[in-house]
Amino acid sequence: MKKTIREVKDYVGKEVKMGAWLANKRSSGKIAFLQLRDGTGFIQGVVVKAEVGEEVFQLAKNITQETSLYVTGTVVEDTRSPFGYELQVKELEVIHAAVDFPITPKEHGTEFLMDHRHLWLRSKKQHAVMKIRNEIIRATYEFFNENGFIKIDPPILTGAAAEGTTELFHTKYFDEEAYLSQSGQLYMEAAAMAFGKVFSFGPTFRAEKSKTRRHLIEFWMIEPEMAFMNHEESLQVQENYVSYLVASVLKNCQLELNTLDRDVEKLAKIKAPFPRITYDEAVTLLQEKGFDDIKWGEDFGAPHETAIAESFDMPVFITHYPANIKAFYMKPDPERPEVVLCADLIAPEGYGEIIGGSQRIDDLDLMKQRYEEHQLSGDAYQWYLELRQYGSVPHAGFGLGLERTVAWFSGVEHVRETIPFPRLLNRLYP
Predict the structure, then answer these.
(1) Distance in angstroms between the alpha carbons of the first and the last residue of the chain
(2) Domain range for residue 61?
(3) What are the backbone angles phi and psi of residue 135, rounded to the nearest 5°?
(4) Please, is 251 exposed, middle or buried when counting C-beta atoms within 10 Å of its C-beta (0-12, 13-18, 19+)?
(5) Spatial CA neighbour of 59 closest among 15, 91, 12, 13
(6) In this model, does residue 162 exceed pLDDT 90?
(7) Quick one: which H or E segment has residue 90?
(8) CATH number for 56
């Protein structure tokens, strides 16, 4: 029976057969070292000439990068290997010989690698990033399932913008106007009124002409929404959720973090509760740091978020932003209506905002007022207004950007490496 690399730890001293690809190799006169991968991990296969015969040894020496194989050998422990095991190869069978694989072990430029993203995903570091992404997704479902949330899937095609912006991808929906979703939040509010605590996980789209290392055109968001919950209670869910993700990645992705040379000590510090500062305090902090141009009422950019994060070794909540720079649905602070009950969670180490959330307006008259102020179409948003008309309750929610979170956990510089096939301003291939 064939085994995977991930399974070999259970077969020490036994002979196994596995399907694999050759990632790399080196050889001397009497030994060939094959770096093998099978999708579940990487392992070194050692081919000793004296133990396999001339035919198998010559095959091992001449085999080319990314050739697919069946490999038979004995599993042995190896403390020198990051994986902890290696394979003493007995037999090799070529399935398909790869010729002139374009991504060689030498250095390649980013654009070249992005043009060959379908092949770049095979590399050890890209494999590690995707495994960390997968663990965050797995832990997300685990966290919300354990805390009484139900997963609800909002539509991707919508008739209106979630946040009233113009940065939307427009399409025709038969004889109507439609847009690719920039957030599932409005629909998640409807779901929360039916199920109490819900979350979604899906793709979102922003037609934002940005080339920064933090932006993608298509990205994935986790968007929980909670009925009978206020702003402070939502912050507690957010910090517990992020802490849970960090702990899960540290527990289950040690090999991947080591492959990426990630400083795990910085991640190990991430535990709730997180520090909080108000928008007012953030403006003062920035001015003290030399950002004399920032004025109250202006939104923060990437340099501002990085400067704020440098004052903390944990993620930090920035709360109570001015109402005029936030979305129409955010609830004003009853004690100070010019600011809203919201928060952005800024990751440390310069990774920027990973969560945006707020308590939502639950008052029907105030929401009608917001419709008028933001010139929202009564036809397109009538259903959203009715959520306040029929049994309105205090409710709150947030959205976590998956790719920025993966970038932070992995320690990679650009979010383009945190999604299998990134969509960027000038990239729709492959």
Answers:
(1) 36
(2) 5-96
(3) -65, -40
(4) exposed
(5) 91
(6) no
(7) strand 85-96
(8) 2.40.50.140
